[in-house]
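This section describes the prediction task in plain terms. A model, or a person checking by hand, is given the sequence of a single protein chain and must write out its three-dimensional structure as a string of tokens. No templates, partner chains or ligands are provided. The sample shown here is typical of the held-out split.
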Amino acid sequence: MIAARRRFSLAVVIVLLITVANGLISGGQAWGQAAEASANLLDNPGFESGTTSGWTGMAGTEALSVVSSPVFEGSYSALVAGRQDGWHGIAQSLLGKLTAGKTYDISASVRLKNAASGRVMMTMQQSDGSGDNYLRVSESPVTDSSWMTLRGSFLYKPSGTVTSLKLYFEGPEAGVDFYVDDVIVAERAEIDWKAEANARIGQLRKGDVQILVKDEQGRPVSGANVEVKQTRHGFPFGSAMSSTVLSNSQYSDFFKEHFNWAVFENESKWYSNETSKGNVNYSVADRMMEFAEANGITVRGHTVHWEVEQYQPSWVKNLQGSELREAMDARITSVVNHFKGKFVHWDVNNEMMHGSFFKDRLGASIWPYMYQRTKELDPDAKLFVNDYNVISEPGDNDYKLHIQELLSQGAPIDGIGVQGHFGATIDPIVVKQRLDNLATLNLPIWISEYDSTQPDEHIRADNLEALYRIAFSHPSVEGIMMWGFWAGNHWRGADAAIVNMDWSLNAAGQRYMALMEEWTTHQSGTTTDNGEYAFRGFHGTYDVTVTKGSFRAKKTFEVEPGSGVLSIDVQLGDTGGEPEPVPAGDLKVQYKAGDTNAGDNQLKPHFNIVNNGSAAIPLSELTLRYYLTLDGGGSLVFNCDWAVVGCSNLSGKFVQLENPAPSADAYLEISFKASAGSLSPGGSSGEIQTRSHRSNWTNLDESNDYSFDSMKTSFADWEKVTLYRNGSLVWGNEP
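The expected answer:
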């Protein structure tokens, strides 16, 4: 019986999409609006009848009783005793009470009686056409000194006829008694989590700005044209960076264009820096740091030490006692001093909840010591804990207690790193609950590692949006780090990447770009009679360009978190006469080959239009042409994969040339809508990523195309792409 009882099926877990969350909360704190929105489906959920009516023993041999002390709330709680095995506990049938396809939020408060510590789990037992399945809803460490509240969610998707459906509590060793109180099973109300997250984002991640435009005599200027463009995010959106950045220009270009923070994937880990004792080498990490600094990318340090035994340098694994202590100390001193002033964060001892290499050999005090010593060497670096299965699995209570213990031992912890390595489907409501629980520690939270392994790229895209939108909307989250992006070197393979092997964006990549566009402020308007132009924009760096007649001014400023309205004064200066039409040479087109394979079934030119002139230019006045040969094939279909100005604000079509040339008998023409905005003086359109293919998906031959150049893998001026303003050629050479 016990062997059958323990058959946990991964396939069933994935099919049923169980999502779980724990929380350590004090007496009287509500489960949340989801549970409050519908009635509790349990009989006698708080044992306030003074009996255990509605409840049974899971094995049938347990001794169930009601006690008046201790209680979590109300007058009574249940005591579970006489347990002869770990799975023995208190249970209630939910057969016939749940609706297929609905999600149910479940919570309960538990406490041990005759053991100082242990683990209690909430489990759903379901017997249906797929067999007998035992599905973990939540679990947590529990003590005999206080109540612990377990929380979880369950998506009910039965297979065939359901013959048994029970919620029960289990976990402590045989002979350990425990209390249960205030159990809730409630159908989750229809929650528009996205709208709620967006409202929080608008409140948390934006600031009010008032631009006051004056002339040289300090008088307000009314009716001036104001263009505001955010050039950099203030919120850290980063990624793990591998040494590929040093050898692959497509990788480095993508990184610097789409991430403002980095963390070295492996290159600052001990096993990378000291392959043999005393042979310390930071050369690769230093070159990566140079790339980051040159491109304004801030870097987190990962990791001083790693507590999991298999990730120690091979020469360290057999060290003991003073030899190990000396090597450990030397590593801290070396790496922290080497990157002092460069790494702004340090993951000090990675994954202490999943390893104990140093603790087992050097004692429990070594953990707080590592933090104290790192802080001593680099007082300015923010020191983080970092662990997994704390928002993707029900490990938030364990993590919270772990951090509290470290703090009580004097570890100077400045932030909480939560790894989010997800699988099938992300429940954003559950993720928020886990973040809420960790946020009660009053420390900044970083999503230190994010990915989602999912073969269906559209589900992968939904997962990415769920995590990013919930995290970006959470008041305690101060940064999100993707753990890799390209299928060519993602640690979890192509099914976790947002960029395909050929550097095209999959659905997850397109969703990421769409979110970055959504959370970037670009707008324009005119000043009031008082010379004012007000807007509310996302935190970050901005350029504002103001023009009126022959008067023009440009200013850069920062919108940062904080209260109040940021006031920016702009003084217009006379540029000497009315603006002239932009002459040829002030506009140029940069190009790169998004796909260097000239013989596959797609062509992927990427463009960037640059304005070197002194006047703003509406993109709607511009038309871009890329020349190619049709090679007698079928019609071509245009796609915009991503554009800073928004794919919805541009269109593309293929036109056959009236007078074909040897290397061009057609061109791709891209035009812009008025909603695309303007090119500010000294500004650019930002990247425009296009992808086109034949309607029958047969292969193309780009090798003889006028505008194609497989050597251009990073943006460069390219005169074989032409640009027209109001129909007049302003850049490039036609074939």
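For orientation: The chain has four domains: 2-187, 202-231+520-574, 236-518, 587-731.
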